[in-house]
Amino acid sequence: MASVQVAGIQTLHARAMRSNKMPMPAATVVIIDEAHHARANTYQAVIDAYPDALIVGLTATPVRGDGRGLGNIFTGLIEAPQVAQLIALGHLVGSKVFAPISKKDIAKGVKTKTGDYVVSALSRRMNTDALVGDVVADWLRHGERRKTIVFACDVAHSVHIRNEFINAGVRCDHLDGKTPKGERDAILARLKSGDTEVVSNCMVLTEGFDCADVGCIILARPTKQMGLFRQMIGRGLRPAEGKADCVILDHAGAVYRHGMPEDHIEWPLRIDQRTQNPAQVKRNKHGGAFQLRECPGCQAAMAAPPPCVHCGWVPKPRALAVDFAEGELGRVVNGNAQKGTYSPQEREQWHGMLTHIAGERGYKPGWVAHQYKSKFGAFPPWGCTPEPVPPTPEVKSWVRSRNIAYAKRQTAAQP
Q1: How far apart are CA 209 and CA 234, in angstroms?
Q2: How far apart are the C-alpha atoms of 331 and 48, rounded to whole Å?
Q3: Regarding the domain delimited by 83-302, which CATH topology (the fold level of the hierarchy) does it fall under?
Q4: Strand partners, 174
Q5: How far is residue 28's CA from residue 10's CA, in Å, rounded to a whole number?
Q6: Domain ranges across the chain
Q7: What b/e readout covers 194-207, taking b as 16+ CB neighbours within 10 angstroms?
Q8: What is the SS3 assignment for 281-310?
Q9: H or E element: which one contains 150?
Q10: From CA 102, how far away is CA 100, in angstroms rounded?
Q11: Closest Cα partner for 126 from 294, 273, 252?
Q12: In Å, what is the CA distance from 342 to each residue of 47, 170, 294, 347, 376?
C-alpha cells in the first residue's frame, strides 16, 4: 500500500466504513481539508477510526456553522495571515462593497435552524421579482461586466436569477448540486473563457472552487454564518492579471452583520466561544463615525473616515448657513443666464443619453420622461422613443446631481 493515501471523505466513508468494500488505510497522520466540516457525522466517523493518529485540519474558516470553535476535535489553532495581510503581500486583492443603504435586516423574522436561516423560508423572502430585478439592475450599474458568481438561496431562486440576467441580455448560467459533472465543467469553462459572464448557484461554489478571473461576487442570500459569508466572498479575492479588486454586491446586507472582508477576525478554538469581528462589533455598538456608510462619490461602502479608498471622495467644506433654493445653472446668452436654450438636436441627444442610462440601470420608462422634464421644463414629444446614446460626462454628472438632490429632499422630509 502506498505511503500516502488521498481520498474524498465521502468516498472513503462509503467504501471503507459503510459497505466494507475496502479496509481503512493505515495512517499515523490524517490531514483534513475544509476542516470546518469536521463535526459532521461522516468526518467524525473517519476521525474516530484513527484514535492514535495526528489529526491536522486545514481551512480558511476554522469554526462550525454556528460560529463556535473546533476545540472538541483539535487541541491547537495555528493562524495563517489574515485577509488584510494577504492583500498587502499581493496574495489577495481588496474588495469594493456595495450594500443596502437602509441597513434594514431583510431576513428579519425568517426562522433559523442549526445556526442559519431555514432555506425554504429564506427563499420565499428573497425570491421575488422585485428583489431579483434589483440583483440584475445593480450588477449592470456596479458590476462592470466582470466575471461574476451569484450565491442564491435555493435552486428555484438561482434559476430565477439566471432567467432575469438572460432577459437583460447578460450571458448567464445556473448550476446546482444535481448538475451533471460534464455540464458543470462546461459551465465553469465558459465562465473562465468569458463566453459566460455570470454563474448563479446554490451552495455549490462556496468552497473548493477557484477561478482567479472572477471579479464580482453577488450575495443574494443572507446568512448568519460568519464562515459561510467569508467562504462566499473569498471566491472573488484571488489575484489575476488586470484585477485591482473584487466588487461585492451585498443584497443581503451581510456586511452589517459580519463586517468587511479586510476586517481582522478572531477565530476561537474553544467550543463555548463564537467567532467575532471586533471592528464590526464596535461599529454596531457605537455607531456614529464607526458605522459603515455609503460613499457619496462612488456609492461603495466606506469602513473608515474619508477620503474614500476607492474614489478619493472627501466632504466639501461646509458653506455659511444661508437659505438656498434648488435650481439649475443656465447657459449664458448675451450676458444673461437662461434656462432651456437648447436646440432640438441637443434635446434629442439628451433624450437618447437618458434612455441609455435608464436601460443600463434598469430604470422604468417614466424615469426618462421626468428627467427630461426636469432638464428642459417639458415632457419629451409624445410617442418619441429615441435610440440609446452613450452618455457624455456632462449628462452623467447632471443625473448624479439630480439623484443627490432627490436624496436630500427625502432626508429633509423625514420626521
Answers
A1: 10
A2: 80
A3: Rossmann fold (3.40.50)
A4: 200
A5: 20
A6: 9-58, 83-302, 331-413
A7: eebbbbbbbbbbbb
A8: HHHHHHCHHHCCEECCCCCCEECCCCCCCC
A9: strand 148-151
A10: 6
A11: 252
A12: 77, 36, 35, 6, 8
pLDDT (tens digit per residue) in 278-295: 999 998 887 766 688 899
Q: 6 Cβ partners below 8 Å, 6+ apart?
A: none
Element (H, E) at 412: helix 393-413
Q: Looking up cell 489575484, which residue turns up?
A: 239
| pLDDT tens digits along 306-347 | 889 888 888 887 655 544 444 444 444 444 434 446 788 888
Residue 148 dihedral angles phi and psi, to the nearest 5°: -135, 140
**Burial environment of residue 365 by CB neighbours within 10 A (0 to 12, 13 to 18, 19 or more):** exposed
In sequence order, what are the beta bridge partners of 94?
Answer: 245
Q: How far is CA 66 from the centre of its chain?
A: 21
Collapsed DSSP state (helix, strand, coil) of residue 164:
helix
**At residue 190, does pLDDT exceed 70?**
yes
How far, in Å, CA of 61 to CA of 76, rounded?
Answer: 15
Burial of 269 (0-12, 13-18, 19+ CB in 10 A): middle
Assess contact for 175 and 184: CB atoms under 8 A: yes
Alpha helices (runs of H) in 52-115, residue ranges in sequence order: 83-88
Report strand pairing: 172-175 vs 148-151. unpaired
pLDDT of residue 328: 46
Q: Reply yes or no on whether the pLDDT at 107 is more than 60.
A: yes
- CA dist 203 and 157 (Å) reads 12
- Grid coordinates of 4: 500516502
**H helices present in 287-382, as ranges:** 344-361, 365-376
Q: Which residue type does 254 have?
A: A
Instruction: Give me 165's grid cell.
Output: 440576467
**Phi, psi for residue 393 in degrees, rounded to 5:** -55, -35
